[in-house]
Amino acid sequence: MLTQVSATLSVLGALCIIVTFFGFKSLRQRRGRQLIFFLSCCDLLTAVTYSFEPYSAERVSYNVSELLCKVQGVATVFFPVASFLWTLCISIFIYRNTPQPMKSFGVTHAVFHVICWVIPTILCAVIVACHMAGSSSSGGSGSADIHNTGGWCWLNTTGMDPEDRLLWELVGGKGVEITCIVSVCALYFFTARKFRANDMHELQQTLLPDMPVRQNVQEFQRKLVLVPLFFVLARLWGSINTFMFAFAGPSEGAAMDIFVTVMELSLIHISEPTRPRLI
């Protein structure tokens, strides 16, 4: 139930961003908004994928449910990974765009697309080739033990040692997730350093010349703090869950798993509508 509610709120938040993007021509011409549009599309498809429960469908055979679970497992790798990579690309864009706008955005934009679509495709290809998509088996009874998720299919780690399970979870998106979290925080830190290194006159000429310099500085510094803060709070819980199950037994991690899932789903849909205001 919690997954369905959170996924619905995430869908609504992403749809608001997408509709606003198409509704205003001025937004479609802004470079940052173009990147947010692709990020929102990935978040929308991620939320839709999470809301589907293959084994709860009535009048569907177990074999069909198993196939749907594998499809969902691939989708829950591709779209979240693409979302993390788009977030990283937005951070790179902000870093390179401060304090002076980039001149070769077309080339950079093309590189962003290659990064954000090719890497998830490679990870999904590895998972499909190794038959890892799906869920942990509960003994073939028509149900699934959905380990380390909020109720959706992801990876089939049946019978694996904790070390092997952790390795596949890193391949299945957690490695990209952790890398992006660290990289985004580092990029915003270095962006803040670049920002402070420029004198007031240069900022007034290159950023927002129609507004007072003091207001520009305060607004930009506020965003440099809030963006990584929202991103880390909303996305860190999945990584915590992964390492918690890797180094603790199921009985020890059961209560924490519920808490982590609640925090992850809640913070993701809460931060979704606020993302455009921060960039």
Task: Give your account of this protein's structure.
The chain is mainly alpha-helical and 279 residues long. Helices cover 74% and strands 3% of the residues. It has nine helices and four strands, in the order αααααββββαααα. It has helices at 2-23, 25-28, 31-51, 62-96, 105-129, 162-197, 200-206, 213-247, 250-271; strands at 133-134, 136-137, 144-145, 154-155. The chain has a two-stranded antiparallel ribbon. Helix 3 (31-51) packs antiparallel against helix 4. The radius of gyration is 20 Å and the shape is globular. The relative contact order is 0.13. The model is unreliable at 138-146, 251-256 and 269-274 (pLDDT under 50).
Order of helices and strands: HHHHHEEEEHHHH
Distance from first to last alpha carbon: 32 Å
Shape call: globular
Strand order of the largest sheet: 1-4
What portion of residues is helical? over 70%
Query: Structural class of the helix and strand makeup?
Result: mainly alpha
In terms of quaternary structure, the protein is single chain
Main beta sheet strand tally, sense and closure: 2 strands, antiparallel
The poorly predicted ranges are 138-146, 251-256, 269-274
Rg measurement, Å: 20 Å
Number of extended strands: 4
* Portion in strands: under 5%
What average pLDDT do the residues reach?
Answer: 74
Output the number of helix runs.
9
